[in-house]
């Protein structure tokens, strides 16, 4: 039977645990999560174990990245199942602070990212989001002091924002992106998939199919506008409301006009019923 991880709920407890690992010359990987763990998160943990000798997983549903109209209160919380998964993966520490531990009374400092955080993708629809992400991730990095941190590529703009922040602020953390884990029918694994009805769950696969078709057309030499227009029409015809469906430079997230503009990434966000889904693929 696997040993249970240390569950730290206060910064002093976490710091002591991290100090003990450092005294033993351990390298540390951090996997930040908001819980509701699925196989995609497990893949992040397994990559973390390959990149460091000890693994810390944080579980914190961060209120500062939710707008008042969003699903903070309803966001799935599955603590017992999450811990069971982490025990099975032999994680060393679970950092599970409460809101008061992360944002104590009088908390008055925020990180306000620019660059990829202002690419006109998620930030157009959730202008509060990346400030909340950058602030909480900055705190997690200083609390856990990891050598590496693992983030999923499904939240691609977020990954680029965190990479830029770690580099700009000299945080001493190597941020690594891990490929998106998908269901057999191509739907990207997400904690929010539980909100989908059986019919919506089937319909949602159109996002991956549309992106694959657009990417194939671009690789075959089609110009970007018709290739992307065809994919957007597929998504709309399936009944989803598009927030964006765009191809961008894969590193800077800058707009592109042709395949020659550099490595490309297709990114999509759409609403299906009450659920907002995001995804992306490389071209």
Structure characterization notes:
- This protein has helices spanning 11-23, 39-51, 79-88, 99-102, 122-125, 129-144, 156-168, 198-203, 206-219, 224-237; strands at 6-8, 28-33, 54-59, 93-95, 148-152, 174-178, 241-249, 264-272, 275-282.
- With 283 residues, the protein is of the alpha/beta class.
- The protein folds into two domains: 6-178, 3-Layer(aba) Sandwich (Rossmann fold); 191-282, Pantoate-beta-alanine ligase, C-terminal domain (Pantoate--beta-alanine Ligase, Chain: A,domain 2, 2-Layer Sandwich), CATH 3.30.1300.
- A six-stranded parallel sheet has the order 1-4-3-2-5-6, sandwiched between helices.
- Strand 2, helix 2 and strand 3 form a beta-alpha-beta unit.
- Helix 6 packs across helix 7 and helix 9 runs antiparallel to helix 10.
- The chain is globular, with a radius of gyration of 19 Å.
